[in-house]
Amino acid sequence: MSAAANARLVQVDALRGFALFGILSVNIWAFADPFYASTTSNPAYASVLDHGVRLLVALLFETKFYLLFSFLFGYSFTLQMAAAERAKAAFVPRMLRRQLALLALGLVHGALLYYGEILSTYALLGLVLLAARNLSAARARRWAIGLVVVACALWMVLGVLQGLGGEWVGTGHGEGQAKLAAFSAGALQTLQFHSREVWATVPALWLLQGPSALAMFLFGYAAGRQQWLASPQAWDPRARRLLLITAPLGLLGALVYALTAAFKPGGGLETFAFGLGQLTAPLLTAAYCLLMLALFNTTAGARLCARLAPLGKMALSNYLMQSMLLGLLFTGYGAGWINQIEPWLLLPMAAAIFILQMWLSAHWLRRHPYGPFEWLLRAATLLAWPNWRRSQ
Question: Where are the transmembrane segments (predicted)?
Fold first, then answer.
């Protein structure tokens, strides 16, 4: 592999590592706050700081980073196509095995560790992308835009209908109380909660996140077909102009969504705001991507890129590790700290976990060519055992 191609892959891996931090910063709330994503705010949030932190997370993190991960999934799909072509191997059977293995892994992850997992969604949407593998880049972009617009319009219409039916704001508490009781009780109750809730939550996530994730798959696929990240420096002359468009519009929609998610959750207002936020979230995700690429091309940013790349190279293993660590901290699998940590401490805790993962990833990849679950997924893809350790 040429030095230029290797530099490109390092930046793609670094973007994936950056996305992992955003995903962790959202998922930690699903473990620590029993009322997160329920129909009401946490009644224990009594201060302006509590609500302010919740607002910040909704504004900058929620519904943004899984989109970046989805874009990179679509981009990496084209790299998989190129790898199969170089190996003179049939691409479709490879990807079918890969996606089915990812589906199985995701469902096990959801039943054991985190009922809100997204791997099964990626696995099924990956089959859709596989069926659309002969699309031109231009058509893929048109389909992606159409998918986002239609899906978000439907959410906004649904929100208005909820409101007209008298349900502007949610009022329920049952879901949060059930999680709090299960995570506070012990390992068996935690396992029962995950294994019960995963079958209701995963289909809901397919509905909530599926259209936008598939759209970003298609955007990433189009970008990979045209090798947008082959020379990241090429974006520098246009970055400022693009940021002036994407960042303000993305932040505006995110602010509307964040205000309702933090203060008026669970009803028609949040549904409408979710649709609006999903409409503008790809713009804010694009702004994040442009900012990180520009940063990676500076001296200090190049060091950050080198530290983030190992995380992204073993993103699957790190995603699963995040669920394991959060489970040990907040559920009956370990300390059972659910609803016991001040909201302002959650982001520093996420940062500490992320820094630990940076060190572990770099340490692991000095001795192994793949993360443990990447190795397993690669074995299923190739129907052969890859090297476990690096050759001397």
Answer: 12-32, 52-75, 96-113, 119-136, 143-164, 198-221, 242-263, 283-306, 318-338, 344-365
**Distance separating alpha carbons of residues 214 and 289, to the nearest angstrom:** 18
Note the pTM of the prediction, 2 decimals.
Answer: 0.93
For residue 193, is it within any domain?
A: yes
Q: Rounded to an integer, what distance in angstroms lies between the CA atom of residue 86 and that of residue 103? A: 26
User: Domain count of the chain?
Assistant: 1
Question: Does 390 map to a domain?
Answer: no
Distance CA 156, CA 207 (A): 14
Helix ranges (H only) for the chain are: 3-32, 48-60, 65-86, 91-112, 119-131, 137-164, 174-185, 187-225, 236-263, 268-296, 299-313, 315-330, 346-365, 372-382
Confidence class for position 1, pLDDT limits 50, 70, 90: very low
Q: Would you say 155 and 272 are in contact if contact means Cβ atoms under 8 Å apart?
A: yes
Whether residue 202 contacts residue 72, with contact meaning beta carbons closer than 8 Å, is answered with no
* pLDDT, tens digit (0-9, with 9 covering 90-100), for 12-39: 999 999 999 999 999 999 999 998 877 7
Q: Is residue 388 part of a domain?
A: no
Q: Read off the tokens for 157.
A: 């219409």
Does residue 387 sit within a domain? no
Q: What type of residue is 153?
A: A
The number of residues making up the chain comes to 392
- Give dist(CA 34, CA 30) in Å, integer: 7
